[in-house]
Amino acid sequence: MKIINTNDANFKQEFENILARAKTDIKEVSSIVTSIIDEIVEDGNEALKKHIEKFDKWEVKSDEELQISKDDMKKAYENIDEKLKEALHIAYDRIKTYHEKQLPKSWIDFEKNGTILGQKVTPVDRAGLYIPGGKAAYPSSLLMNAIPAIVAGVEEIVVCTPTPNNEVNELLLAACYICGIEKAFKVGGASAVAAMAYGTETIPKVDVITGPGNIFVATAKKLVFGEVHIDMIAGPSEIGILADSTAKPKYLAIDLLSQAEHDEMASSIMITIDEEVAKQTSIEVENYLQTLSREEIARKSIEDRGAIIVASSMDEAIELMNEIAPEHLEVMTANSFELLPKIKHAGAIFLGENTPEPIGDYIAGPNHTLPTGSTAKFYSPLNVENFLKKSSIINFSKQAIDELGEACALLADTEGLTAHAKSVRVRLEDK
Predict the structure, then answer these.
(1) Domains of the chain, with CATH numbers?
(2) What pLDDT is recorded for position 135?
(3) Which residues are annotated as a binding site?
(4) Which CA distances in Å does 120 have to 108, 126, 229, 293, 390?
């Protein structure tokens, strides 16, 4: 694994390359995705069937075939191994408990002059969840997207997932059953995003679309934003690790690879203040690579988008990591909690050697749908509020408008909005 030092003459350029890790040119696929969206808007289910035959390689003979039956979900749940079933329920309960703590409350405030101000929090009516199913199926993503919507109180949840060769992952079906999903469809890619955004004869139009996907899914979400709300534009998975001399190279190496095995485009970056830890970790990465079932994918990711940076101090290391703003950040140091106040930008922060990133993917409780490609500087993890909206509440008494009305009318005058000003003054004149 490539090791670079902040004192190297070419470090600035090397670091710029790391920061550009997720700069995929959406323009390259925008025209393709726009055509797909236009076809769905114009032809609905017929376009979906054509896209499924082209991309997922099976023929949809009727509209009913697009939907995954609740009986299939139940059957899959009943047939999975009991220990696996228990693990799914543990994950469900922990994710639900964590997200219940995120629920914002409606509130009302009363002022002395009779003014009543407040905020009303309401769930969206219908949420659309995109669950990947291409190179691998991710039942955990179903839990992570469905549970916040359930906690928020969303009445109707719609799931879309690609089904290559008309095969649905049994564990994904079981997860749908646990979450009580009523509507799930065998539709993937940009077609699924378009169908949920605009609706077809079979798939209802939703209010918000969440969930990760490839460049076509991400581009489609970007293009339909405004027609519906979205969670974020997520790119390939990534991990950043801060390490000092106390960190165990074998832990560091396998944690770097835990993201590299996702995708050739995944990014694994470690910054350490100990050169020996850097060298040993690089050796361990090679040792572990040879044992992985997805070695080819992980190796390409590590070779093309992986790096170990040796920094001169922990402050410098943190400064660099804040600039990277990784999706997942592990802090493998002797004093991980002491560093927490200095960490500004990361999707999820994993503190201590016993908190590997996969714990967050499956069982810890916080959401694993996270901002990537430095967007943690302004995006948050998927959460309950992605499925909620807020309405302001305003009620003025006669005393309140008498006290504040002229100031309001004056501001309206300044902006040249005569009706605005008169709307207030007509009430002031009415004694």
Answers:
(1) 3-23+235-364 (3.40.50.1980), 27-230 (3.40.50.1980), 396-429 (no CATH)
(2) 53
(3) 237, 259, 262, 328, 361, 415, 420
(4) 9, 18, 19, 50, 6
